[in-house]
Specification:
By secondary structure, this protein is an all-alpha fold. 47% of the residues lie in helices and 3% in strands. The protein has 14 helices and four strands. The strands form two sheets. Strands 1-2 form a two-stranded antiparallel ribbon. A two-stranded antiparallel sheet has the order 3-4. Helix 8 (192-199) crosses helix 14 (301-315).
Length: 335
């Protein structure tokens, strides 16, 4: 039996955790209320068309930017909400989110600037940088032969961007899916399905060897290879990534890394995903594994539908609306 004081502590802790979960969900529901599909219909009616036109040009010039630009929206939303703070420049004395270790490999800031320039020419001071990130994320998926979805807009831009915030709020590739779910997703009102579906974004893009080299050469500081990687795949990965390689890029979904499809789930099912966080999705539970196998052996229709739903859900995180924040004239600078 528990002693009375211990029982009281546990009871209080459970109550506090429950209250925190309710507050998170309540906050997210309030955030979502400020966004609507077609927010710029009257103030900048061609906003999404302008974005799509410019992104079409950019993707023709540099199709490899699809993955990084999609990832940029995720990295923005998970750090103090979808407020465009990942775009702000820092200084030597005050490094910003983009200067943080998890964001050093982000690319495509110039593309966002190109889109913003076009929008400012058409509708000065109207379209936020946070909304540009959300719409661009959708458009790069569409332009990579993936699904489309309606993007609620109306976000405003934040004025805080601190390097440490990114370090504390972005799930690293070396944590387990279970840890990522409980530490980073659930507190934001996102569930296991959202984690699996959003991880499916790894069907496009590349990764530096440094993000998974430990799985090849020193898993859990054992000096050995992660036994969960398909043993027939290990030699191929080692031929591309030498020990301590920090610069080489490897396709996350080999053979179709420029096409948004269900190939990611085939890689996970075959134990050929690069990141420990992706591989450990197989151990998240029976329902999660069933979903992965279903997508790996399907035409991708279910995943495509689910991806749009989870992206909208993520895009609602802690948004600034109404008179909060500002509409930046330059996405890298506070007005």
């Amino acid at each position: 039996m528990l002693v009375p004081k211990m029982a009281l502590v546990i009871s209080f802790t459970k109550s506090f955790v429950s209250l925190f979960a309710i507050l998170v969900l309540f906050t997210n529901s309030i955030d979502a209320q400020g966004l609507v599909v077609g927010f710029y219909n009257y103030t900048c009616p061609n906003a999404e068309s302008i974005i799509r036109t410019e992104m079409t040009k950019i993707m023709l010039e540099a199709p490899s930017l699809a993955g990084p630009l999609l990832r940029m929206h995720f990295h923005d939303c998970f750090v103090n909400g979808c407020d465009g703070s990942v775009l702000l420049n820092g200084t030597t004395a005050n490094p910003a989110e983009k200067d943080s270790i998890p964001n050093l490999s982000l690319r495509g800031f110039g593309s966002i600037d190109r889109v913003k320039t076009k929008l400012e020419a058409a509708c000065p001071g109207i379209v936020s940088c946070a909304d540009i990130l959300a719409v661009v994320a959708r458009d790069v998926v569409v332009l990579s032969n993936g699904p489309t979805w309606d993007v609620p807009t109306g976000r405003r831009d934040g004025n805080r961007s601190v390097s440490q915030d990114a370090l504390l709020n972005l799930p690293p590739p070396f944590v387990s899916a279970n840890q990522s779910l409980n530490q980073f997703f659930k507190p934001r009102g996102l569930n296991a399905k959202d984690l699996i579906v959003l991880s499916g974004a790894h069907t496009i893009g590349t990764s530096h060897c440094s993000s998974f080299n430990d799985r090849l050469y020193n898993f859990n500081n054992t000096g050995a290879t992660d036994q969960d990687i398909d043993k027939n795949y290990v030699p191929k990965l080692k031929s591309k990534c030498k020990q301590n390689d920090q610069t080489t890029l490897v396709e996350m979904d080999p053979g179709s890394f420029k096409t948004f499809d269900n190939g990611y789930f085939k890689q996970v099912a075959k134990r050929r995903s690069l990141f420990f966080s992706d591989d450990s999705l197989r151990k998240l539970g029976k329902k999660s594994m069933a979903y992965i196998l279903r997508q790996a052996n399907s035409n991708g229709a279910e995943f495509f539908k689910d991806f749009g739903v989870s992206m909208v859900k993520m895009g609602n995180l802690q948004v600034l609306t109404g008179s909060q924040g500002e509409i930046r004239k330059n996405c890298a600078l506070v007005n």
